[in-house]
Fold these 3 entries.
Entry 1:
Amino acid sequence: MEERRNLAPGAVSGASVPPGPPAGGPPASDVIGSALHQILQLSRAFERQVGQALEVNTTDLTAMEHLIQEGALTPGELSRRLDISTAATTLVIDRLVALGHAQRHPHASDRRKVVVVPAQESVTRAFQQLHPVIGGVAALTQELSDDERHVVEAFLERVIGVYRSSLDSQSSSFHS
């Protein structure tokens, strides 16, 4: 006897259905999940806006972030942080230097090496772009009571842990 399946209208029997949210979308109580999703989307849009203002692509902007946060880096160090080849990193550095966002300098202790440093004017421009969001979030955190701050910090640390755990497990499955 033929097995009968309940199929959605227009569905093809035996077709693979990609996983998705439960029917009807997320539960109404998932305001936090929805807010986190909105923050992620807005963060991506904001990064694109900053990149456009600085006239760089996403990879170049990420390289600038590393240089601004960590200071002088060798091309090899930058390559590892960007998780791209050294050849691709050379192209990134060339673009940043050509746009005036970075400079190459001799390494302080190894004359064979160079380091890439962010140009101060570009650091200033980047912070001008970032300031409204950084300042706005800082102002919001100042409005929190100590108890509220502890709850938010604990929750965000757990969310970060979920992301790190997922990245670690996916990374290990790629290398298995």
Entry 2:
Amino acid sequence: MRAYRAGNVHALAISEVNSGLFAVKGDLTFTTINQHTLKAIDCSLSDVSIRIDLQEVATTDSAGLALMIEWLKISKKHSGKLSFINIPLQLQALAKISGFDQNLSLTLQTDEQSNHKAQTQHHG
């Protein structure tokens, strides 16, 4: 299991839960994101589907959105498959206001939506 942790009280922690599934916990802000955060998840792998779960993000700002966009750019450059799940409403609003929700095809879904979609496709 790979893990990255920023060193402050409201630390940002990124860990690989399962193969290709990463959990982000803590604050996703200018204060917690640094040069190592971008490299915490290797989005340059073209043969792996990567999902980033943001359910346990406590606080976020535009730096969180910028990080998501950078991860998407790296993944796209290497023909990778990257999606985000359980995106906090604050990040969804920032993405919508900035126009990045459509321009970068952010996957704005919850696990429940994913499960419903999978069940519909399975039975349909």
Entry 3:
Amino acid sequence: MAATWSGHTLIAVLSVVCFLSNNLTSAVQFPWAESPLNATESTVSVFDLRVPDFSTEQVQLFLNQTVAGRDYPDFHTIPVTNFTCRQVEQPGYYADPDTGCQVYRRCAPDGTMFSYLCGEQTVFDQLLLTCDFFYKVNCNISVAYYNYVNMHMYKSGQSVG
């Protein structure tokens, strides 16, 4: 059975663009590349930044066009990057854009950094603080949302749970 495509989805999935992130050059259009998903203005709600769900057929067509290491990061070990906990305002979890967000860091209250690697075809979603499929996360906006969830963590005087 043929997949049903909306004009916006078809354009978003099939258009050709260049996407640069840690030397990754993509030949496919990511679903979030169309505005407002690519917007970083403060007037855009974080809910607008989430990528809509796609059908199985749409995802399969998109994945058939992607190549590991070109369209999404393909690390098998955690690389050394320029990220340090000194560059962030508070303890929390942070996507490392130097890795296309496949690596994320936890900055402890004492400044100690812990590093984690998202699994194959996944990258760290700064809005949800979890790894998600690369086509559902816009790594380019991660730094702008470093404090969105992290500001609610590690507050003194508050109990957990």
